[in-house]
Design a protein that fits this description.
Length: about 180
């Protein structure tokens, strides 16, 4: 496993552990571009009732080296892959997944329709399996949605908005860590 992939996996594992402990945040000293992008694409939103909503956008830039990024680009060709989890935290150390409703996604102000995971083509299912592996044990709480004909990645320009329940989460692009073009 490459250094970048290992760093992304560690960042996601730490986010998964954050499910089970009191809210605390830290930043990586001198993060690599992949670490910056990984941190930006994974959103954790603690709620007042003790639950947490998490979003994970599986973008090609999460691949640590150019070969991994090309592989992810091939898997995610023509689709945006988004994972959503909502969990109740129990006893500060375990979590119980909640039922996930479909998020509403828009890019450049245009709403997009999702396809359900059961209807994913094989390459998207492979990307979903890879995303679950990056997230770790908490990955089983995620429900994934694919948005076809949406060619946007973490280094595109624009705003990707995700409305879930009564909250709107925004990814302002390009993500931190992308090379300025």
């Amino acid at each position: 496993m490459s250094r970048h992939r290992r760093a992304a996996a560690i960042a996601l594992a730490i986010a998964g552990i954050a499910l089970c402990v009191a809210p605390v945040t830290a930043r990586v000293w001198k993060p690599t571009p992949v670490e910056q992008i990984s941190d930006y694409l994974f959103i954790v939103d603690p709620k007042e009732d003790g639950s947490q909503v998490m979003l994970f956008w599986m973008a090609p830039q999460l691949g640590g080296d150019p070969q991994e990024q090309a592989q992810l680009r091939g898997l995610l060709r023509n689709h945006l892959l988004l994972g959503v989890a909502e969990v109740d935290i129990k006893d500060g150390s375990s979590f119980m997944p909640r039922r996930i409703s479909e998020p509403q996604v828009s890019y450049a102000g245009r709403p997009r329709r999702a396809i359900e995971q059961g209807a994913f083509p094989p390459e998207l299912q492979r990307a979903t399996d890879q995303a679950r592996g990056l997230i770790g044990a908490a990955g089983q709480a995620f429900r994934f949605f694919a948005y076809p004909d949406l060619r946007v990645d973490a280094c595109s320009k624009g705003v990707l908005q995700v409305r879930y329940e009564r909250e709107v989460y925004s990814y302002r692009l390009p993500a931190p860590g992308c090379a300025v073009r």
